[in-house]
């Protein structure tokens, strides 16, 4: 994916409100000296945000757009200029009339270049506060927000949802749309709550969902784009006076829907003001103050034509950005003269505005992809991969004869649509979203070419009887219809997209006069397919397929997809399809052995075979790799997501191009072709590794050539032989390895003693962000890490490594400057997490001796089931834990202090030292029979932001000291009034558990087995 689009949606997302709150830069510079300091600070923060997200994009192998690089260069220049200006300000105390206008102008350009995508509008703070206040009101359980399409309802409630995360345990957002799908709504809610609904019966699913939603959590469900009254009971959503743990926030175009749903608070969202509309248009059209008055006048008139509708303003402004004056004039005339027919009253202006944006694309590929997106349910996320496959199958791109080239084309074209404001970027995956109003306009534009049937009750006779429709229709989308014509004569049909849930069934579908029928994403009846001799793309989803021999007749087939199908066995005919380039078999249940067929598909460019349910007899075969030994196609794979054998690895829809998981990986018998896939993989999971394999490099992957520098994530699981990850002790020349590795997981290695032997290769682990080591019974030390630069490491986890006695020396910690999460579990031999041995002593701000600050970015520290643990972190080092948010210690019977005495603290025992943990919100001290206090006596910890406290079985703990740490000077030593005021919350068995939620006034329960 090109980062050019991503930067517009991501790099300044956190700064949107700060930007929209600012007034326009003043032309009066009397207070410039003060303002310039603030602007410098904001620019510095923005630059850091851009750099961070650009680095993340590079790790995802995304391309950084030129304008982003240019923005960063400009920012550096501007910051230098600001330094000069500030120095002049200090010496001359003048307002710099000769400098200010130029600097502010150039700075604004820098900010504009970094913000290709802004918010749809500055959210109405008053309305947002109204909703949040209603959510805090115990008497309000359902809130309705209504307003016309494209006005910004979705953006508003998404922002409210982010704020509401501070109020509710869970916030669930899901689009509903006009085509009501109860099963999909149930599934989306379940997914958001991290549990799975496997039942098919909707009523059974509803009961299970109800039980989950009434489990005690306080949940907010945001239902976006509701078109009709919803039956909450049928869905499984609890509501009403009997249960008050579930709040509903819905958006709709209709006040009537709010009324029917008995919303207790109804909030209208109106069109934005002329001033807001003009400001928005200027931002998206990049109209600067220096623009000519003629252009500004045209822009103002065009803005007025958009009638205050944000989606129309954004689309029109984006499409005119950078255009010549004559094109602006033509756009205005088009908007004035256009009179769209058959449009719902009140929507004429939005329709003609969006029509103008469509017409201005000037690119048939972009127009075709835009119309293709309208086939999908409104507001749904449309994966780029689907658009790539459909676009390739339809032949939308000239002179494109490979999927990799098609990906480049589709990505570039989608970027144009995103920049035009006609599509939105999905937040969490490579996908796009088409606003519901934009979708309506797209279907209206192509009403003669696209026909959509969304309602089970709609009469499909029109397709059979209407001559005009039959003669012109190219794309047909049918969703959940109860009945389909048994014959359909549509000679120009190119895509038939049929979706049906598992409860329904279709009659036989026969297509006649198939001229250039190129793509059928979902066709449930295999009997109808063999006659489609020109078919290039076939996607079968949710089908039971007992016989796939019909595929042999589809000689022009290039893309074949099976998704969530029940398959008797993969047909040998698949291997005979000479033009087949892409085969995707995912989430399918297969009775036979599919690997025999897969190994003979020598014509493929791309193979996807993951998350499939295979028989035990197949999974128990420890030599499945043998089916690929003679395959010549493996070397030609441009992309592969391949799972060979049983795998615990969870592929999460990752769009990385090369993923490989192999169970029973035998180094001695694996072919060169399989090893080539290993060498080229970006995500690699090898399990049950054998074949005299003492290491990963060089026994599995060679250090010469490509090595493993494309690898981003590596998981090695279960080996009785492997002693280290990399062994360079016998290598004469060591090249670069793992130069892009971000995640490393090593588990169940009985004889692993170290991560590497010999000199570490240059740059080893420099980009590593996450390291997990578990069930490695011989691992004694990680001290070798001090030889590496691991400044990118953020997550470090150890579990069940009983031979570890000490984790970190100060030298190792110095290489872990970005560490955010440290999690240690079941390391029975561990005595110290960190020692102060050989620690560097420096002078602090007061001229006192101190250790160099460590763990300055650490947010989560969790230690559990470490029976011999005597100390965590020296108390002097704890001064660096300014970012610590969560501290959990459980079952460490030898531990006396969380932060223990060290050499420097022993020298200063007569002085009282205050150590503040300014952002610590969660503290758990459980099953610690010898714990006395958080810090030694001469050190006093302050926990001003503590929100949750858990104490259990800590009989030696001085609770009054903990109280003083929380309340500070508000409580005096010996004052137990705070204890008496706090009610008991929960107790379990003979030992009490303290579960305390502390708002600012700290009125919460504290219970436990400890000293008063």
TrEMBL record:
Residues 128-286 form the NB-ARC domain. GO terms for biological process: defense response. SUPFAM superfamilies: L domain-like (SSF52058), P-loop containing nucleoside triphosphate hydrolases (SSF52540). Keywords: ATP-binding, Leucine-rich repeat, Nucleotide-binding, Plant defense, Repeat. Belongs to the disease resistance NB-LRR family. Pfam families: LRR_RPS2 (PF23247), NB-ARC (PF00931). Residues 698-828, 851-960 form the Disease resistance protein At4g27190-like leucine-rich repeats domain. Coiled coil: none annotated. One of its GO terms (molecular function) is ADP binding. The lineage of its organism: Eukaryota, Viridiplantae, Streptophyta, Embryophyta, Tracheophyta. This is Disease resistance protein At4g27190-like. InterPro entries: Apaf_helical, At4g27190-like_LRR, LRR_dom_sf, NB-ARC, P-loop_NTPase, Plant_NBS-LRR, WH-like_DNA-bd_sf. It comes from Abrus precatorius (Indian licorice).
């Amino acid at each position: 994916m090109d980062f050019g689009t991503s930067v517009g949606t991501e790099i300044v997302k956190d700064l949107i409100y700060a930007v929209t709150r600012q007034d326009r830069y003043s032309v009066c510079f009397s207070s410039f000296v003060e303002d310039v300091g603030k602007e410098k600070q904001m620019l510095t923060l923005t630059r850091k945000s851009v750099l961070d997200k650009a680095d993340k994009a590079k790790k995802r192998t995304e391309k950084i757009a030129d304008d982003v690089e240019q923005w960063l260069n400009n920012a550096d220049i501007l910051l230098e200029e600001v330094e000069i200006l500030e120095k002049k300000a200090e010496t001359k105390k003048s307002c710099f009339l000769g400098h200010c206008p130029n600097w502010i102008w150039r700075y604004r350009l820098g900010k504009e270049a970094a913000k290709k995508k802004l918010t749809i509008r500055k959210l109405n703070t008053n309305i947002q506060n109204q909703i949040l206040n209603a959510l805090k009101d115990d008497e309000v359980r359902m809130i309705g927000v209504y307003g016309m399409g494209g006005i910004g309802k979705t953006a508003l409630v998404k922002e409210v949802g982010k704020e509401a995360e501070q109020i509710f345990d869970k916030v669930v957002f899901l689009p509903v749309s006009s085509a009501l799908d109860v099963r999909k709504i149930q599934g989306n809610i379940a997914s958001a709550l991290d549990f799975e609904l496997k039942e098919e019966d909707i009523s059974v699913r509803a009961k299970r969902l109800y039980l989950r939603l009434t489990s005690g959590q306080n949940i907010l469900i945001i239902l976006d784009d509701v078109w009709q009254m919803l039956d909450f009971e049928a869905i499984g959503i609890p509501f009403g006076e009997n249960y008050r743990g579930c709040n509903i926030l819905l958006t709709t175009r209709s006040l009537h829907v709010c009324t029917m749903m008995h919303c207790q608070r109804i909030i209208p969202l109106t069109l934005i003001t002329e001033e807001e509309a003009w400001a928005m248009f200027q931002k998206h059209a990049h109209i600067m103050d220096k623009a000519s008055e003629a252009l500004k006048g045209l822009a103002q008139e065009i803005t007025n034509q958009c009638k205050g509708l944000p989606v129309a303003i954004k689309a029109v402004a984006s499409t005119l950005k950078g255009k010549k004056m004559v094109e602006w004039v033509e756009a205005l005339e088009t908007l004035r003269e256009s009179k769209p027919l058959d449009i719902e009253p009140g929507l004429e202006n939005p329709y003609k505005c969006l029509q103008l944006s469509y017409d201005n694309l000037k690119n048939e590929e972009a127009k075709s992809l835009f119309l293709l997106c309208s086939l999908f349910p409104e507001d749904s996320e449309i994966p780029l991969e689907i658009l790539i496959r459909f676009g390739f199958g339809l032949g939308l791109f000239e002179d494109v004869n490979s999927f990799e080239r098609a990906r480049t084309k589709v990505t570039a074209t989608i970027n144009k649509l995103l920049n035009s404001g006609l599509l939105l970027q999905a937040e969490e995956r490579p996908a796009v979203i088409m606003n519901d109003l934009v979708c309506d306009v797209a279907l209206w534009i192509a009403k003669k070419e696209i026909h959509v049937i969304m309602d089970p009750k709609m009469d499909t006779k029109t397709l059979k009887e209407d001559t005009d429709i039959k003669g012109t229709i190219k794309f047909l989308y049918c969703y959940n219809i109860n009945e389909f014509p048994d014959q359909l004569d549509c000679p120009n049909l190119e895509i038939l997209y049929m979706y049906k849930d598992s409860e329904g069934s279709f009659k036989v579908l026969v297509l006649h006069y198939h001229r250039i029928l190129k793509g059928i994403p979902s066709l449930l009846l295999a009997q109808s397919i063999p006659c489609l001799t020109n078919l290039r793309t076939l996607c079968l989803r949710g089908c039971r397929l007992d016989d796939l021999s019909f595929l042999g007749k589809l000689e022009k087939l290039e893309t074949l997809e099976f998704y969530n199908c029940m398959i008797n066995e993969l047909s040998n005919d698949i291997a005979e399809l000479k033009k087949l380039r892409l085969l995707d078999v995912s989430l399918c249940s297969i009775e036979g052995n599919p690997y025999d067929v897969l190994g003979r598909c020598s014509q493929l460019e791309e193979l996807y075979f993951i998350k499939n349910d295979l028989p035990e007899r197949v999974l128990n075969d420890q030599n499945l790799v043998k089916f690929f030994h003679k395959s010549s196609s493996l070397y030609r794979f441009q992309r592969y997501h391949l799972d060979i054998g049983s795998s615990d690895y969870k592929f999460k829809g990752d769009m990385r191009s090369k993923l490989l998981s192999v169970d029973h990986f035998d180094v001695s018998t694996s072919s060169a072709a399989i090893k080539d896939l290993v060498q080229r993989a970006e995500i690699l999971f090898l399990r049950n590794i054998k074949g005299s394999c003492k290491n990963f490099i060089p026994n599995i992957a060679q250090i010469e050539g490509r090595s493993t520098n494309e690898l981003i994530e590596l998981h090695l699981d279960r080996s009785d032989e492997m002693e280290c990850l990399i062994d360079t002790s016998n290598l004469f020349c060591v090249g670069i390895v793992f130069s892009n590795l971000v995640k490393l997981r090593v588990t169940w290695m009985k004889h692993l003693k170290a991560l590497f032997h010999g000199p570490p290769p240059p740059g080893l682990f420099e980009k590593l962000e996450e390291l997990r080591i578990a069930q490695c019974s011989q691992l004694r030390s990680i001290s070798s890490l001090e030889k590496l630069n691991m400044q990118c490491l953020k997550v470090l986890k150890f579990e069940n490594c009983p031979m570890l006695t000490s984790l970190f020396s100060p030298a190792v910690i110095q290489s872990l400057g970005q560490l955010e999460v440290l999690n240690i579990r079941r390391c029975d031999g561990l005595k110290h997490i960190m020692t102060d041995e050989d620690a560097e002593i420096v002078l602090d701000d007061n001229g006192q001796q101190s250790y160099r600050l460590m763990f300055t970015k650490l947010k989560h520290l969790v230690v559990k089931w470490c029976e011999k643990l005597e100390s965590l972190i020296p108390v002097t080092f704890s001064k660096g834990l300014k970012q610590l948010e969560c501290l959990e210690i459980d079952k460490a019977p030898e531990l006396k202090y969380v932060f223990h005495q060290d050499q420097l603290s022993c020298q200063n025992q007569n002085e009282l030292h205050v150590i503040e943990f300014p952002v610590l919100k969660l503290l758990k001290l459980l099953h610690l029979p010898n714990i006395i206090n958080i810090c030694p006596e001469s050190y006093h910890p302050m926990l001003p932001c503590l929100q949750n406290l858990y104490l259990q079985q800590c009989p030696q703990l001085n609770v009054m000291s903990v109280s003083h740490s929380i309340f500070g000077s508000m409580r005096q030593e010996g004052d137990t009034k705070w204890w008496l005021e706090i009610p008991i919350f929960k107790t379990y068995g003979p030992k009490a558990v303290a579960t305390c939620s502390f708002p600012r006034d700290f009125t919460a329960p504290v219970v436990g087995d400890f000293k008063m």
